Amino acid sequence: RSCTRMQAAPLASTSGRPAIAFQSASTRNQGASTSHRSMQSALVPLVGRVPIGLVHGVSAWQQRHGPHADARAALIIPQAAAAASPGEEPQQGYGSRQGKQPAWKKRYSEDISQIKPLPVSRVGFQLPPTAPITWTFMITYLLLMLVVPIVALLSKASLTPPSLFISRAFEPVAVHAYFVSFSCALAAAAVNAVFGFLLAWVLVKYDFPGRKWIDAAVDLPFALPTSVAGLTLATVYSDETVLGRFLEAVGLPVVFTRLGVAMAMVFVSFPFVVRTMQPVIQEMQAEVEEAAYTLGATPWKAFTTVLLPPLLPPLLTGTALAFSRALGEFGSIVIISSNFAFKDLIAPVLIFQCLEQYDFMGATIIGTVLLGISLCIMLLVNWIQTLGQRFKNK
């Protein structure tokens, strides 16, 4: 145990070739500090080109491995310096012979020359492998169901002289039909906005017997034919029933009036507001409302300041959809209204009357006006949805 441990360490000779010398464990510890100082002095010219973390890492490695580590670092540090700045020459006299190209630089140059540049990947829109089939089906469907009918209507209307188009589009009967259609559709959308919101709130927030049946009945106007809806409304509110006679007695007749037209529009467009509001109300966190109550807010203030702002965009979207649906209603209104001009005649029924009289040009012109209005409503709905997304992201 008392024997002196001997270790071989490479030392730099005067000829530049490493020579093997044996050192004892006692002299190795003394030489470690001296070698560490020489290592730091050798690293001074390279600090500007080698990352500082590498310098500290090599110093710690040299302290751990003893005085023979500077000979290994003589090969490591110049390579790291060349990797940090390949275009610069390393300091001569450390790790290379004066006047000759170091071996590490020659190997580094050969390795760099053999590297081939990687192909540049363009990040952009890429079609999936099944894109030709899906895109062909989508484009064909859009062309046949949407683009071709609209283009045919617009091309037919473009054959009409501008003066005739304006005179037929804004004649008194057509203008009054536009007014009845838009006024009744706006009234139906407003009623659906209030009561549809209340129904969606009750269906989500409260649990009571028969809730699932009421939730299923909301979708009934989607499945029920509109002519059946008109027949049902005419039967319930006619003067032969108790309810119909009561409404006529108080001066609110329903059948063959604008009130009946508005009620038919309310019936067919009722589910849009409810189905638009339900998912948003379900996603609302109850902790937010409870936090408002904890801070001292009244129920009305908590509703107007905490709950209503995130619910306003979907409410407006559902109202716009209900308005669009009510504007294009035909089947139920043609039964419950008298269809007289300047009374309760709407634009879709006017188009049907023009077709019955073989006035295809007049029907095309009125249909083009309604198409333009529907397009504006669609753009409005998309804009409202965009505002809703921005508010949700904030």
Structure notes:
With 394 residues, the protein is mainly alpha-helical. The protein contains 17 helices and 2 strands. A two-stranded antiparallel sheet has the order 1-2. Helix 2 (52-65) runs antiparallel to helix 3 (69-84), helix 5 (131-158) packs across helix 17 (360-393) and helix 12 (258-283) packs across helix 14 (299-327). It starts with 5 loop residues before the first strand and ends with a helix. The model is unreliable at 1-33, 36-58, 69-77 and 79-97 (pLDDT under 50).
Order of helices and strands: EEHHHHHHHHHHHHHHHHH
Number of helix segments? Answer: 17
As a percent range, the share of strand residues is under 5%
Q: Give, in spatial order, the strands making up the sheet with the most strands.
A: 1-2
State the share of residues found in helices, binned by percent.
55-70%
General shape? globular
Total strand segments? 2
Largest sheet: 2 strands, antiparallel
Rg computed from alpha carbons, rounded to a whole number of angstroms: 43 Å
Low-confidence stretches: 1-33, 36-58, 69-77, 79-97
Average pLDDT score: 75
The span between the termini is 75 Å
Structural class: mainly alpha
What's the structural blueprint in terms of helices and strands?
Layout: E1 6-12, E2 18-24, H1 25-43, H2 52-65, H3 69-84, H4 103-114, H5 131-158, H6 162-169, H7 172-205, H8 211-217, H9 220-223, H10 226-236, H11 242-249, H12 258-283, H13 286-294, H14 299-327, H15 333-336, H16 347-356, H17 360-393
Antiparallel strand pairs: 1-2
